[in-house]
Amino acid sequence: MSAESTREYLARFGLDDKIITYDVPTATVQQAADASGLEPGQIGKTMAFDVKGTAVLVLCAGDAKVWNSAFKRQFGVKPTFISPDELEGRVGHPMGGVCPFDVCEGVQSYLDVSLRRYDFVRPAAGSENTGVDVTIDQLPRVANSLGWVDVCKGWRE
């Protein structure tokens, strides 16, 4: 996959005009927040896990961290990240551009409830210098989500 194929994927939902291309890398939450003027929580962070051999993506708020015990309750295993050198082959996107859009066949996608406190979020759009604005109402369909989960901590007041 590439930023261009992700643009084509997002065009099917009328979101290709919502893609932002930055002149600086936005591979980390802080880089994306600094470049965009958004708060870190509003940057959609997609974490890629290996769950019993299946690539599982969890899109969460940028200020959230995986909550090990909640993840295990949800998925039946402790969280194990897919290694950076395997990301593109297993998920379809490189480190810094991982998103739930335009992914490899068989990848499962979930949304964490930490996102629900925002009207829209800006996850990556397939590369380390792109993002896309997606409303919370649009997100489940665009991300081909299998549902909302509560597997992150550190964002609640």
Describe the 3D structure.
The chain is an alpha/beta fold and 157 residues long. The chain is built from 5 helices and 10 strands. It has helices at 3-11, 29-36, 68-75, 84-90, 139-142, and strands at 19-21, 44-51, 54-61, 65-66, 108-112, 120-121, 130-132, 134-135, 148-149, 152-153. Strand 2 (44-51) and strand 3 form a beta hairpin. The longest helix has 9 residues, at 3-11.
In short:
By secondary structure, this protein is of the alpha/beta class.
Query: Helicity, in percent?
Result: 10-25%
Q: CATH class, anyone? A: Alpha Beta
CA radius of gyration is 14 Å
CATH architecture: Alpha-Beta Complex
CATH topology-level name = YbaK protein
The number of E-state strands comes to 10
Query: From the helix content, strand content and strand pairing, which structural class follows?
Result: alpha/beta
Chain-averaged pLDDT: 94
